[in-house]
Every structure is written in C-alpha cells, then in structure tokens.
Specification:
The chain is built from 8 helices and 5 strands; from the N terminus they run E-H-H-E-H-H-H-E-H-H-E-H-E. The chain is of the alpha/beta class. It has one domain: 3-Layer(aba) Sandwich (Rossmann fold). Helix 1 crosses helix 3. The protein is globular, with a radius of gyration of 15 Å.
C-alpha cells in the first residue's frame, strides 16, 4: 500500500470534464484508488481541498455528487486521510509575505513544506505542476508522479 498525496490540479482534472487533464486523472484515479486497485491511501492536505472545492466546483451539482460518491467510498474503506496543515501555516505565510524569490502560492508553499518534512507524511506526490515540486521531492525523498507517469511503472 502506498500513501499518495494529490495536488489540486489532479482533483480538478478528476472532477472537471472540461479540464485538459480529465482523461489522465480518471485513469490514474481508477488505477490507484478504485475498489479493484491495491489499497493505496489518498492523502489530501487541507489547502488542496480549499483550492479544489471553490465556488466553481460548488455551483456544479454533477461535480458535487461525483466528489461525494468517490470520497465517501475512499473514507469508508479507510483509503482517505485529510492532512492537517497547522504545523506549516505560520512559517509558510511568513515566507510568502517576506520572500518572493520564487512565485508560489501559499498552498504550494505548504505542500512543499509537507514534502520536505522529516515525518514523511506520504510516499508519492501526484501533481500536474511537477516543476513547482521536483526539487522538494528530491530533498524529501518523495516519488513524484505527473500526468506523464504511468502508475504501473512504480509497481503500485
């Protein structure tokens, strides 16, 4: 079983039929988290949920129904963990306000801090914005998956 942290771009692609990553997100989700798959765990940091479940998502009843079905199933099979960002908020906010050497959102800064943390909250990070996270994954020894990665190549 792998612990796979997902980025907002994966979730947006999964639930938005018009998103450029919709097809690949569906395939990756089915391979990694369906009932037929290995019992991998989906790790969702709270900032990702805020980013993904915005007003646009809330106004589309189809997305809400599909999201609720999938997440209820994952939660019921103990395959879902919501990762608290509390330990990272203050430092990342101060970094965001004080230093703009790298133009990253506050959510991305929190994710990078989670990736680099010694506790290793997850084994794999799935994003379609790999350029923002490659260095952090290397430092944190976290496997990086993107839209071009086949989950089969990792033996998951």
């Amino acid at each position: 079983m792998a612990r796979i942290c997902v980025d907002a771009c994966f979730l947006i692609g999964l639930y938005d039929r018009d998103d450029q990553y919709h097809g690949v997100a569906i395939r990756q989700f089915e391979y990694l988290f369906s009932e037929k798959a290995e019992r991998n765990q989906l790790i969702a940091p709270w900032p990702i949920l805020y980013e993904c479940l915005g007003s646009r998502h809330a106004r589309d009843p189809r997305k809400l129904v599909l999201f609720n079905q999938r997440w209820t199933s994952l939660y019921g099979s103990a395959q879902l963990e919501l990762l608290d960002d509390f330990p990272f908020r203050e430092k990342c906010l101060a970094e965001y306000l004080g230093e703009q050497s790298r133009p990253l959102s506050l959510a991305d800064r929190v994710l990078r801090a989670m990736i680099e943390d010694q506790q290793r909250f997850f084994d794999i990070f799935l994003t379609y914005n790999a350029g923002d996270f490659t260095d952090a994954c290397e430092r944190g020894a976290i496997v990086l998956m993107n839209e071009h990665t086949s989950p089969e190549s990792y033996g998951i």
